[in-house]
């Protein structure tokens, strides 16, 4: 009887699904398709298989914006630098040459040289700023190259500068390239004979599928960096919308591409100062990043109220990634400055990560507290048998789950309600096994002696001692950032981020409490225990001459909801409030400096005034 009943169900369900829609109710097919997209490739078609795109050969179809037509041309015999004759795109500033609809393949690279003709070196002028900007399929402008050259006043610039840029962040797109030249900081355009030698896109012509960086537990974009701990992999620019929307790191879901330097930013972090723009660097963790995405307009609008900034172009450089904590910001600044980055203003927004993360992630695992967050998990692919075994089991279970999903997605199994229910039960058990192993990983303590995972031995006798030490490193890192900025003519401002667990810092309604406040939690404990030490260290920073601002009470009189989670993050309104306050602080700093300055020339204010 039971067998007959099951047979009838299968017969009618098979007939119905065959007539109505073959894919309608196949749980396994849905999973298999998602898994194929996630673990194999994105089937989007890439660029045409041409090996070289020569910009000089396509100048006739380019859009040219310049004062005189003769300013832009292709030349060879008359363009020589250091007795090295090359075919070049001659582009006298101020000009833009736009090449539209260039197909970018997976392995494409942009190669070119820049320089100023040697026959102009003994004549008037103050150099040229060369820039390459890519306009992607979303019409967003991405500056991928910027360099100021002045061979007339700097003998080190009397040569060709050969550049090779990886274009993998734009793989599969049809984009526009803008080659732009601008006069030097004094605006002297005399004899600015600038040239781009042999600009071209090189690739091997293979139609490779776009892939996403993976670990044993799925798509994960954070990769180890030799200097600043970790960055985001540009390979994750090739995520599908589905992968991006379900990715655990919210910064990736912001829709901002990852640059070749591993920072979540639409342009490269290396820019050159000029009189008509302000290069604004944002440093910190996830709060700083989301401020750069959601609060930056309120900051710029506040600054533009001042005549100092009213006619300036703002370039925002995002050096903020979720989980960053000192001394990562300090090291990142040193790293970028050593590569030639220039800034007018640096804003450092931090504090929470410095006290909340070490006490809940590194220290309980016996890991050096000032290593990047969850350091031992980041080096798990190095030879540690225990953790490699668990990671291997996760990989096996995921493979098994994918295999059986593929089996049950095929005809005739995918039309069977009964078989799909059996598969769903089995798949749920596999998912639970994977979750169990992931919990084992989270609770794993590195073996004593695994120095690559733990670093120097460090021990605190008490929590107050721990928080005091964490705040001290935070303070010293800020002092060093301030000194670096002073030495490089950069205005540095440091802000202690607000947090809901600081007593009296926010009036919370019931709904906001449910969403953003927990009675027991690791972040709550770290913030409550650590913030008093940060506030005290902040006052010491002011005495040390650092332009420090404590923002912990900035929401104290706000009744409307601000916090969006039980960690530390704010909504759009919160970021706008912070942006306005930071803008006011910058203007106040400049005005105070102008009043106190006895010498009319200040290295820090040359560009901003």
Account of the 3D structure:
With 609 residues, the chain is an alpha+beta fold. The protein has three domains: 1-30 and 406-443, no CATH class; 52-202, Jelly Rolls (Sandwich), CATH 2.60.120.200; 269-360 and 464-605, Rossmann fold, CATH 3.40.50.1110. Helices cover 35% and strands 20% of the residues. It has 15 helices and 22 strands. The strands form six sheets. Strands 1, 3, 6, 8, 11 and 13 form a six-stranded antiparallel β-sheet that branches. Strands 2-7-12-9-10 form a five-stranded antiparallel β-sheet, with no helix packed on it. Helix 5 (296-303) packs parallel to helix 15 (572-596), helix 6 packs parallel to helix 12 and helix 9 (385-408) runs antiparallel to helix 10 (417-442). The longest helix is centred in the C-terminal third of the chain and has 26 residues, at 417-442. The model is unreliable at 16-50, 207-219 and 601-609 (pLDDT under 50).
Summary tags:
609 residues, alpha+beta, Jelly Rolls, Rossmann fold, six-stranded antiparallel β-sheet, five-stranded antiparallel β-sheet, globular
CATH classification class of the largest domain: Alpha Beta
N- to C-terminal distance: 90 Å
Mean pLDDT: 81
Task: Provide the structure class.
Answer: alpha+beta
Shape: globular
Count of the domains: 3
The helix tally amounts to: 15
The description of the largest β-sheet is:
6 strands, antiparallel
Radius of gyration: 28 Å
Task: Estimate the helix proportion, in percent.
Answer: 25-40%
> How big a fraction of the residues is strand?
15-25%
CATH architecture descriptor name of the largest domain: 3-Layer(aba) Sandwich
| Low-pLDDT regions | 16-50, 207-219, 601-609
CATH domain topology of the largest domain: Rossmann fold
Quaternary structure classification:
single chain
| The CATH H-level homologous superfamily of the largest domain | SGNH hydrolase
Number of strands: 22
């Amino acid at each position: 009887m039971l067998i007959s009943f099951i047979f009838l169900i299968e017969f009618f369900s098979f007939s119905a699904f065959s007539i109505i829609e073959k894919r309608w109710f196949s749980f396994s097919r849905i999973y298999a398709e998602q898994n194929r997209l996630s673990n194999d490739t994105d089937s989007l078609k890439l660029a045409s298989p041409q090996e070289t795109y020569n910009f000089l050969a396509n100048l006739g179809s380019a859009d040219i914006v310049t004062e005189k037509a003769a300013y832009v041309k292709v030349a060879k015999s008359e363009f020589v630098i250091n007795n090295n004759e090359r075919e070049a795109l001659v582009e006298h500033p101020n000009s833009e040459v736009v090449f539209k609809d260039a197909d970018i393949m997976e392995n494409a690279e942009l190669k070119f040289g820049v320089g100023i003709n040697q026959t102009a070196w003994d004549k008037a002028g103050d150099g040229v700023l060369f820039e390459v900007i890519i306009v992607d399929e979303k019409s967003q402008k991405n500056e991928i190259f910027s360099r100021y050259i002045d061979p007339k006043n700097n003998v080190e610039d009397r040569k060709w500068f050969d550049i090779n840029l990886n274009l993998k962040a734009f793989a599969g797109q049809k984009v526009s390239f803008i080659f732009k030249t601008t006069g030097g900081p004094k605006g002297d355009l005399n004899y600015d004979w600038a040239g781009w030698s042999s600009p071209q896109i090189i690739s091997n012509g293979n139609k490779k599928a776009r892939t996403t960086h993976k670990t044993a537990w799925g798509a994960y974009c954070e990769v180890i960096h030799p200097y600043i701990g970790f960055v985001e992999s540009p390979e994750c620019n090739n995520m599908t919308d589905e992968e991006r929307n379900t990715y655990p790191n919210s910064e990736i879901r912001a829709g901002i591409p990852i640059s070749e330097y591993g920072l979540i930013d639409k342009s490269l972090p290396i820019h050159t100062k000029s009189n008509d723009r302000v290069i604004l660097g944002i440093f910190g963790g996830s709060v700083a990043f989301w401020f750069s995405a959601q609060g930056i307009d309120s900051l710029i609008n506040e600054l533009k109220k001042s005549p100092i900034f009213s006619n300036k172009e703002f370039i925002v450089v995002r050096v903020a990634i979720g989980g960053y904590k000192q001394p990562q910001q300090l090291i990142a600044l040193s790293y970028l400055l050593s590569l030639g980055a220039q800034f007018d203003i640096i804003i450092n927004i931090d504090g929470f990560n410095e006290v909340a993360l070490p006490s809940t992630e590194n220290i309980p695992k016996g890991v050096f507290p000032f290593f990047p967050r969850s350091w031992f998990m980041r080096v798990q692919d190095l030879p540690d048998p225990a953790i490699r075994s668990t990671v291997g089991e996760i990989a096996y279970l995921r493979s098994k789950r994918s295999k059986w999903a593929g089996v049950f997605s095929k005809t005739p199994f995918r039309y069977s309600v009964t078989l799909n229910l059996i598969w769903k039960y089995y798949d749920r058990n596999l998912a639970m096994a994977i979750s169990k192993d992931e919990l084992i990983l989270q609770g794993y303590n590195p073996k004593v002696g695994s120095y690559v995972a733990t670093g120097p031995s460090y021990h605190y006798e008490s929590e107050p001692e721990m928080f005091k030490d964490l705040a001290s490193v935070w303070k010293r890192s800020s002092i060093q950032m301030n000194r670096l900025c002073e030495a490089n003519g950069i205005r540095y401002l440091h802000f202690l981020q607000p947090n809901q667990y600081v007593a009296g810092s926010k009036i919370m309604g019931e709904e906001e409490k449910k969403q953003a406040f927990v009675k027991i939690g690791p972040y709550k404990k770290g913030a409550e225990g650590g913030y008093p030490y940060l506030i005290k260290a902040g006052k010491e920073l002011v005495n040390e001459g650092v332009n420090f601002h404590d923002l912990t009470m900035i929401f104290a009189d706000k009744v409307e909801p601000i916090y969006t989670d039980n960690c530390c993050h704010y909504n759009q309104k919160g970021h706008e409030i912070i942006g306005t306050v930071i803008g006011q602080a910058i203007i106040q700093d400049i005005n105070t400096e102008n009043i106190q300055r006895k010498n009319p020339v200040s290295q820090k204010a040359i560009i901003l005034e």
